[in-house]
Amino acid sequence: MSDYAYPKGYNHNLIHVTSVDAIIADMEMQVRVLDRYFNSGMSFDKDWMIRVWMSGQLPSWVEKFFAHTPWQMLAPTYCEAVEKVFAAIEDKWNLSLHRRLVPEHFRQHEKSVGMFKRLAWRQEDNGRPRKILVVPAQFGLRHKSQSVLEVRDTMHKGEVGLGLFDVGMMILTHPERLQSPGDLGINCPGDECFDDLSFMDAPVFRRWNEGFGVLYYGIDTPHKGYGSASAFLP
User: Of 234, 229, 140, which Cα lies nearest the Cα of 191?
Assistant: First the structure.
């Protein structure tokens, strides 16, 4: 059992209780943030987003559509792209983000790589990749208190874990999500981190009294203060 939760300022039920106009306005707000930091432009596949929203395919656990810039648009390697997102978060929050990223000890999970390739393909603009993707996702509450290993083993069809880059994008556009040590930390099952023997850790975003940052945590260890973020591929 866990009393960790989302902060009151984060609206986690937007996609199911609002109008299509409000959903589009929310996405445009997120895209403006990404364009400010990554020069990503304002173009996203609005028609695809509306079709998915109206189709009835979205599970009840999907909280909203999140704006996402593919990491390949920002840097030649995944780790470098993650660092760019971290730098943007530090600028927006005006604080230092504690982290320890060693490129050879850090990588995307295979399932996450495949999911974003398919999502990018479905939202192409006349055969050209978009600088902004629309990602139906949830911010951790669905998998509260579960280990990353359990989450990976029990995800529903079409569900995939999100990594540091993806969750960093979500935090950049939703700073209200992680404000105090009592807010639910965010596991990133879409990434793998190397411990002493193998890739048996996963990163987690969390707040503590001294600041905000990324820790590594064993994938087989549940924690009442953490919940894994995940996305849905319709």
Answer: 229
Distance of CA 104 to the CA centre of its chain: 22
**pLDDT, tens digit, for every residue of 156-209?**
889 999 999 999 999 999 999 998 888 999 999 999 887 666 678 889 998 887
Task: Pull the structure tokens for residue 192.
Answer: 């793998």
Is the pTM higher than 0.90? The answer reads: yes
Q: Does the pLDDT of residue 211 top 80, yes or no?
A: no
Stronger pLDDT, 27 or 215, i.e. the higher one: 27
DSSP-derived 3-state class of residue 145:
coil
CA–CA dist 44, 36 (Å, integer): 15
Q: Are 28 and 42 in contact (CB under 8 A)?
A: yes
CA 189 to chain centre: 10
Q: How far apart are CA 162 and CA 85, in angstroms?
A: 14
What is the distance between the alpha carbons of residues 114 and 129, in angstroms, rounded to a whole number?
15
pLDDT tens track for 83-97: 999 999 999 888 888
Task: Tell me how far the alpha carbon of residue 143 is from its chain's centroid.
Answer: 14
Q: 193 vs 41, 151, 190, CA distance in Å?
A: 32, 16, 10
Tell me the residue type at 43: S
Coil/strand/helix, residue 90? helix
**Quick one: DSSP state of residue 211?**
E
Closest C-alpha to 53, from 136, 132, 122, 159: 136
Alpha helices in the chain (DSSP H): 14-17, 20-38, 46-55, 78-93, 110-122, 148-154, 164-173
Please state the separation of Cα 167 from the chain's center in Å: 3
